[in-house]
C-alpha cells in the first residue's frame, strides 16, 4: 500500500498513472491466427482449440443436449440468483429504450431519429478458472431487449470439450441463440469473418486477455465494430469519517482480487479513517483464497489523503475510474460533481459487487482512463440511431436558398443543383 | 453506368461490394509523423505545415483579428445561410438531450444513467479546394449543446497562412473556443497528444483523406476516442414510376461529384424510369464543373432493376448505405423496412443536399457499410452516459444473497465478502 498525504497537484499525474498497455508486440501472432481463421474457417478454429485449449472438438456448436444437461448441473440456488440478476438487468436496460420524437426544424422540414437494433452481435466470454457467467447476463440481456436478430456467443471449452454449465444457463435465461466452443483470438476471428459454423457478426462485445484485446483491435480496423477498448479493472473509493472502514476495505479487496494489475485507489479526507482501512484490509486479506493476487495488486494501490471533498472529487475526475464508490454521508452532493467515471456507487450499501452482479447496471465499463471518452455497455450499444427527414414543398422553399448558397460556396454545384431542380419545379407549377 | 436487371440473390454480393480500403501501407509514414508531434510539439507541427501545406507559420492559433477579418470577408447571403443552418442543426440536436429516469429494479435498489459531456473534443476540418464549413456546423453545434468545456478545431491554412473565412465564421456561430492552423496527420497528432499551443482532447471528430483516416485509427488504439471509421461517401436511391427522374438524377450526381471513389446506386422497380434517369444524368452531367470527377464515379455506379419494393429494400439493407433516398410515393411504408442506413430521406423533396447542409440532421455518417454497426454523429457522440446506483438496507437484503451465491460460483470470494460484511452488519443491528 502506498500512502500519500496531501499530494501537490503536480504529483497528481503520478497518482493517476496507469500501467502502459501496448498489445502491438502481440500483433504478429494475433494477425497470423486471424488470417488462418479467415481462410480456413472451422478447421482452423478446431486446430487452434487443440493447440491453445488442449481440447479435441468434433463440432463447435453447443448442442441442445448440452444445454439441457447444464440446467441439471447447476444448483437451484444459483439458478434463482441468475433469474433475479437477469430480472434487474432487464428492467434497467428496458428503461433505456429510445423513442425519437419528430422535430420540425423549419415549417415543412421534419427530422427524427429511430433506434434500430444491430442485426448480428457476437459476445465473447473468457474461460479460465472463474467462469464469467455474470458477463453473459450483462452482454446478452440488452442484446435481446434491443431486438438483435442473431446473438452469437463464443466461449472456450474445458479439456473435456464442455462449457461451464452456469455460462450455458445464463445464456439461455438471457436469450442467446447460438453458442460456440471457441476461445481467444480464434473466437474473435470466427465472429469477425464468419466460418461454416459461426455466423459473421457486425459488432463484438466482451472482455478477454491481451490476445483477445489485440484481436478485437485488429478486426475493428476493417471488419466489425467492438464495444470498447479494454484494460485492467479499477476502483476508486472516496471516503471520510462517516464511511465504514470494514465496508471500504472489503470493496477495495473485491477489486484487488481481480488480477495483479488491478488498480485500487482510496481518496479520503480523514487520516484516522485511512489507517483504519489500512488495518482492516490486512485482516480481511488473510481470509481470501485469492490472497496472493490481491496482495500484489495492493502493492500498487494508493491511499491518498486530501484536504477536502472538492479536491477528492477533482482527483477522482482526473483519474477517471471505471468504478467510483462515494461511501460518505454527503454522497448526493458529491455525485453532482462526477465528470469522469464509468459507474458510480452511492452511499454505504452500494458496493461494487452489487453492480457487478445483480443491481441492474451493466458491469462492462470503460477502464484504463477510457471513461474520459467512453461509457459502459448499455442498450444504445446494441442499436444505431438512424436519422430520417421529410420535406414538404414549403420546406424546400424555406431551406432551399440556404442550401444553394452553401453548396455554391463549397464549390459543390451538383449539390446545389439537387435543390435548384426542386425549387424550379415548384416555381413552374406556381406559374 | 452499370445497368443490372433482375439480379439473382447470389449476385448481390457483387452489387454491394465496396472498394477495398486498406490504409495500413500508410502506417509507417503516419506513425513517424505522429511520433514527432508527440515528442516535439508545436515545432514539429510547424515543420510539417511547411513540408505538406507549403506555408510558413509563426504561430498555430487563429487570432481574434483573423476572426474579425473573416466576418468582413464573407457575403451577407452566406452569413444568413450559415445562421439558418446552425439554427436547424441546433434545434434537432437539442431535441436529443437525455434525461435518465431513476429505476427501482428491486425495492431499495435504484439505478439511473446521467448524460455527462466529454470535457475536451477535437474537430478536424480538411482544407483543399472546397472549404467544408458545413462540417464545422455539423461537428461543433452538438459539441456546444452537449456542454463540452473545450472545443478545439484544427484545419489547414492556405499558402498565405490564412484559414478560409467561411470556416472561421461557421466556427464562431457554432461556439468553437480554439482554432488552430494545422492539417493532416500533424493536426490529428496535435489533438491526440497536445502541444504547447493545441490542447490534448479526449475524442476526435471529422473527415479527412487516407492519411487522416490512418492517423485517427492509430491514435484511437491508445490515446483518444474517434467518431467512427471512414470511407468514400455513398448514396442509394430507391425509386419507381412515381419518382421524378430529374430530381433522382440530380441526387445521384450530387453524390458522384464528391470524388471518383463515390458510390452511387439506384434501385428501381421500373425499367422505363431507369432509362429516363440514365438519360437525365447525361444531360445534367454536362453542366457540372466537377464533371470529370462525377463521370468517373458514375462509371462504377450501379442502376439495378428489381422485381418489387420488398426486394429493393432487402438489397438496400444488404448494402447499408450512408444516405438512403426513398423517392417513391409510398416512402412511409418503405421507411418502416429500413434496417441498415445512416440517414434516410423521404419523398420527392428531401434531397441529400438538404441534410448535407441545412435541414438539421447531421451529415457525419457511417460510410463503407459501417452503417451495419454505427450511427452518424449525434448528441450522444459528445456525451457519456454514466450509471449511478443507490442501495438502501432493504436493497442489500433483497439482492445481497444473489450477489453472494453468484460471486462464490465465479470464485471471487472478496466480491462475495463485500456483500457479506454489509448483510452481517444489518443482521447485527437487528439483533
UniProtKB/TrEMBL annotation, chains A, B:
<dbReference type="InterPro" id="IPR001692">
    <property type="entry name" value="Histidinol_DH_CS"/>
</dbReference>
<comment type="similarity">
    <text>Belongs to the histidinol dehydrogenase family.</text>
</comment>
<feature type="binding site">
    <location>
        <position position="124"/>
    </location>
    <ligand>
        <name>NAD(+)</name>
    </ligand>
</feature>
<feature type="binding site">
    <location>
        <position position="258"/>
    </location>
    <ligand>
        <name>Zn(2+)</name>
    </ligand>
</feature>
<feature type="binding site">
    <location>
        <position position="356"/>
    </location>
    <ligand>
        <name>Zn(2+)</name>
    </ligand>
</feature>
<keyword id="KW-0520">NAD</keyword>
<dbReference type="InterPro" id="IPR016161">
    <property type="entry name" value="Ald_DH/histidinol_DH"/>
</dbReference>
<keyword id="KW-0479">Metal-binding</keyword>
<feature type="binding site">
    <location>
        <position position="258"/>
    </location>
    <ligand>
        <name>substrate</name>
    </ligand>
</feature>
<feature type="active site" description="Proton acceptor">
    <location>
        <position position="322"/>
    </location>
</feature>
<feature type="binding site">
    <location>
        <position position="209"/>
    </location>
    <ligand>
        <name>NAD(+)</name>
    </ligand>
</feature>
<protein>
    <recommendedName>
        <fullName>Histidinol dehydrogenase</fullName>
        <ecNumber>1.1.1.23</ecNumber>
    </recommendedName>
</protein>
<comment type="pathway">
    <text>Amino-acid biosynthesis; L-histidine biosynthesis; L-histidine from 5-phospho-alpha-D-ribose 1-diphosphate: step 9/9.</text>
</comment>
<feature type="binding site">
    <location>
        <position position="186"/>
    </location>
    <ligand>
        <name>NAD(+)</name>
    </ligand>
</feature>
<feature type="binding site">
    <location>
        <position position="255"/>
    </location>
    <ligand>
        <name>substrate</name>
    </ligand>
</feature>
<dbReference type="InterPro" id="IPR012131">
    <property type="entry name" value="Hstdl_DH"/>
</dbReference>
<dbReference type="InterPro" id="IPR022695">
    <property type="entry name" value="Histidinol_DH_monofunct"/>
</dbReference>
<feature type="binding site">
    <location>
        <position position="415"/>
    </location>
    <ligand>
        <name>substrate</name>
    </ligand>
</feature>
<keyword id="KW-0368">Histidine biosynthesis</keyword>
<feature type="binding site">
    <location>
        <position position="233"/>
    </location>
    <ligand>
        <name>substrate</name>
    </ligand>
</feature>
<feature type="active site" description="Proton acceptor">
    <location>
        <position position="323"/>
    </location>
</feature>
<feature type="binding site">
    <location>
        <position position="410"/>
    </location>
    <ligand>
        <name>substrate</name>
    </ligand>
</feature>
<dbReference type="Pfam" id="PF00815">
    <property type="entry name" value="Histidinol_dh"/>
</dbReference>
<feature type="binding site">
    <location>
        <position position="415"/>
    </location>
    <ligand>
        <name>Zn(2+)</name>
    </ligand>
</feature>
<comment type="function">
    <text>Catalyzes the sequential NAD-dependent oxidations of L-histidinol to L-histidinaldehyde and then to L-histidine.</text>
</comment>
<keyword id="KW-0560">Oxidoreductase</keyword>
<feature type="binding site">
    <location>
        <position position="323"/>
    </location>
    <ligand>
        <name>substrate</name>
    </ligand>
</feature>
<keyword id="KW-0028">Amino-acid biosynthesis</keyword>
<keyword id="KW-0862">Zinc</keyword>
<feature type="binding site">
    <location>
        <position position="356"/>
    </location>
    <ligand>
        <name>substrate</name>
    </ligand>
</feature>
<feature type="binding site">
    <location>
        <position position="255"/>
    </location>
    <ligand>
        <name>Zn(2+)</name>
    </ligand>
</feature>
Amino acid at each position: 500500500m502506498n500512502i500519500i498525504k496531501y499530494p501537490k497537484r503536480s504529483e497528481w499525474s503520478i497518482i493517476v498513472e496507469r500501467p502502459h498497455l501496448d498489445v502491438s508486440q502481440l500483433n504478429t501472432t494475433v494477425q497470423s491466427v486471424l488470417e488462418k481463421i479467415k481462410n480456413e474457417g472451422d478447421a482452423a478454429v478446431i486446430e487452434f482449440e487443440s493447440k491453445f485449449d488442449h481440447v479435441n472438438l468434433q463440432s463447435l456448436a453447443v448442442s441442445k443436449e448440452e444445454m439441457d444437461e447444464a440446467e441439471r448441473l447447476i444448483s437451484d440456488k444459483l439458478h434463482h440468483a441468475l433469474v433475479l440478476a437477469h430480472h434487474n438487468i432487464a428492467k434497467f436496460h428496458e428503461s433505456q429504450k429510445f423513442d425519437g420524437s419528430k422535430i420540425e426544424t423549419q415549417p415543412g422540414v421534419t427530422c427524427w431519429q429511430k433506434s434500430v437494433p444491430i442485426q448480428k452481435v457476437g459476445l465473447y466470454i473468457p474461460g479460465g478458472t472463474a467462469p464469467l457467467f455474470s458477463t453473459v447476463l450483462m452482454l446478452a440481456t440488452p442484446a435481446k431487449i434491443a431486438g438483435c436478430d442473431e446473438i452469437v456467443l463464443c466461449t472456450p471449452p474445458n479439456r473435456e470439450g464442455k462449457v461451464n454449465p452456469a455460462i450455458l444457463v445464463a445464456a439461455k435465461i438471457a436469450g442467446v441463440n447460438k453458442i460456440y466452443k471457441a476461445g481467444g483470438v480464434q473466437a474473435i476471428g470466427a465472429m469477425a469473418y464468419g466460418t461454416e459454423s459461426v455466423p459473421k457478426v457486425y459488432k463484438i462485445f466482451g472482455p478477454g486477455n491481451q490476445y483477445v484485446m489485440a484481436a478485437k483491435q485488429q478486426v475493428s480496423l476493417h471488419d466489425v465494430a467492438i464495444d470498447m477498448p479494454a484494460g485492467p479493472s479499477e476502483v476508486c473509493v472516496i471516503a471520510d469519517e462517516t464511511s465504514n472502514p470494514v465496508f471500504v476495505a472489503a470493496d477495495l479487496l473485491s477489486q484487488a482480487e481481480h488480477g495483479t494489475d488491478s488498480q485500487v485507489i482510496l481518496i479520503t479526507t480523514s487520516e484516522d479513517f485511512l489507517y483504519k482501512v489500512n488495518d482492516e484490509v490486512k485482516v480481511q486479506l488473510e481470509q481470501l483464497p485469492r490472497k496472493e493476487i490481491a496482495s500484489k495488486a495492493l502493492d500498487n494501490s494508493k491511499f491518498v489523503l486530501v484536504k477536502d471533498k472538492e479536491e477528492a472529487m477533482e482527483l477522482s475526475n482526473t483519474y477517471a475510474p471505471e468504478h467510483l464508490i462515494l461511501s460518505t454521508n454527503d454522497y448526493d452532493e458529491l455525485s453532482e460533481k462526477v465528470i469522469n467515471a464509468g459507474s458510480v456507487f452511492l452511499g454505504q450499501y452500494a458496493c461494487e459487487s452489487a453492480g457487478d452482479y445483480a443491481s441492474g447496471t451493466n458491469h462492462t465499463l470503460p477502464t484504463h482512463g477510457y471513461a474520459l471518452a467512453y461509457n459502459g455497455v448499455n442498450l444504445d450499444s446494441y442499436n444505431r440511431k438512424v436519422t430520417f427527414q421529410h420535406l414538404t414543398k414549403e420546406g424546400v422553399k424555406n431551406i432551399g436558398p440556404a442550401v444553394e448558397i452553401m453548396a455554391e460556396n463549397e464549390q459543390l454545384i451538383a449539390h446545389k443543383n439537387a435543390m435548384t431542380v426542386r425549387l424550379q419545379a415548384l416555381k413552374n407549377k406556381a406559374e
